[in-house]
C-alpha cells in the first residue's frame, strides 16, 4: 500500500546503487591520483549543513578518501554552502575564488560545491559563468546522489550541475562520518513557515520528518559508539511528526530518546515559538537527560514587525510561553535569534525588542542585521533605515545583552556543574558547556577531553564561566 510518506523517500535500490558506485569510484580515484585520495571539506552555515556534510564525508570515506585540513595536501575540496545571509554567501564565494590557483596547480584536482547557496538558481548560474574550474555542483535535495555525480565527472570530465527543484526527499540510511562524542542527529528537514525574510523554505523544501524508528536506531547506534551528547536537529523541531503516516509529537520523540539506556545529554534545536507546546515543556522537565536549555528565536519584540515577518505569535504570547517555561524549570537557560533592521522597522519598534530582551533575561543571543534574500517577500519591502543606524541599534542590543548575560551567569558562582569536556583552547583552558549551553573554561588534563567532569564555578563573565575541576 502506498502511504503519504512513500513519495518522499529515496528508494533503497537507488541508495544501494550509490553505495556500489562508491566502490567503482574508489578504483577510479586511485587511477586518477596515483595515491590514496585526500579530501578537505568545509562547512559554511548551520548545524543542518554540518550534519549533511557528515553524511557526504560518510560517502567520501566509502570511496577510500582520507581527510585533511591542509588544502595543499588535498585532491578534492568539498564546500557545503549557506544562503541565510549575504555574508555567508560572500565568504563561500570568496573561498571558491581562492581555489582557482589550487586547481591550476594540479588540474586533476576536484572541486565540489553543494548546499543552500547553490540551490538558488541565480547563484548556480553565477558559479557556471564565473567559476569554470568548479567540477561538481549539487543542491540540497540530491545529497544521496553524490557518488553518482562524482562518477559522472570522473568518467566524462564534464562539469556536473545537479540542482533539481523539489519539495524535498528523505534518503535513509546514508553513511555518516562523525568524530568526537557530541553528535548531530537530524530528525526533520525543510520548513513550511515562510518567514518573510528567510530563504530556507525556498532552498530546503517542505517540512518532512524522519520516521521515529530510524531516528531511534541512529540514536542508539550513537550511544553504543560512545556518544555522550546528541543534538536533535530541525528548522522547527516543535512541529516534528506532523507529516508521518502515524503522527507523533516532538515531546513524544524526546521521551523515546530519553528512554534509551546510557549516560548522555539530549539537546535540540531549533524551536519555533508558535509551535512550542506545554506538552514539550513538561517533557523537557520530566526527561532527566534533556538539557534545560531552550533556544527559542524571537526575531523581534514588536508586534507589527512580527506580523510582517509572518512569525505567527505576538510579544505577549512569547513572554507568556517564557513565563510558563521558567515556572516549570526555574534553572532553564533561554537563548534566541534576533534580527535588527527588518525592512520598515522603526527605532520605537526596535526598542520593543530591547524591552523584550530585558524581560526574558537570555543567557545568550544570536543577533543579526537583516540581510535581503533574493525571492523572499521582505526583499520587496521598503527599507528606508540607513545601514549606519541599523549598526548602531545592533550595537545597542549587543551591549544590553552583555549586561543581561552577566546577570544571568552571576548565580553560577560557587556552583558545581557537570560539564562534558570538549577540548583544549589555544589559551590553555579546557572547555565545555553547561547544561544551559553556557561556555565554561577550566584548567585540566588531556584525559578530561570527551568525558564528563565536575567543575566549580570561580568566575562568571558575561560570555563565559571559569572554574576548577573537582
Ligand atoms: N537576515 C538576517 N538574519 C536572518 N536569519 C534568517 N534569515 C535572515 C535574513 N534574511 C536569522 C534568523 C534565524 C537565524 C538562523 O538566522 O534570526 O533564526
Ligand atoms: Fe526560516 Fe522561519 Fe523556517 Fe526558521 S522558521 S527556517 S526563520 S522560514
Distance, first to last CA: 58 Å
| Shape, principal axes of CA atoms | globular
Q: How many strands, which pairing sense, and closed or not: the largest β-sheet?
A: 6 strands, parallel
Number of separate domains? 4
CATH topology descriptor of the largest domain: Rossmann fold
Looking at CATH, the homologous superfamily of the largest domain is: Methylthiotransferase, N-terminal domain
Tell me the structural class.
Answer: alpha/beta
**Total strands:** 19
CATH architectural grouping of the largest domain: 3-Layer(aba) Sandwich
What level of helicity do the residues show? 25-40%
> In CATH, what is the class of the largest domain?
Alpha Beta
Fold topology:
Layout lengths: L11 H22 L4 E6 L3 H16 L3 E2 L8 E6 L4 H20 L4 E6 H4 L1 H10 L5 E3 L7 H11 L3 E3 L19 E5 L1 E2 L10 H5 L3 E2 L2 H13 L4 E5 L16 H9 L6 E5 L8 H9 L6 E3 L7 H7 L5 H14 L4 E8 L6 H14 L3 E6 L17 H23 L6 E9 L5 E4 L5 E5 L8 E9 L3 E6 L1
Parallel strand pairs: 1-2, 1-3, 3-4, 4-5, 5-6, 7-10, 10-11, 12-13, 13-14, 17-19
Antiparallel strand pairs: 8-9, 15-16, 15-18, 16-17, 18-19
Concise synopsis of the structure shown:
The chain is of the alpha/beta class.
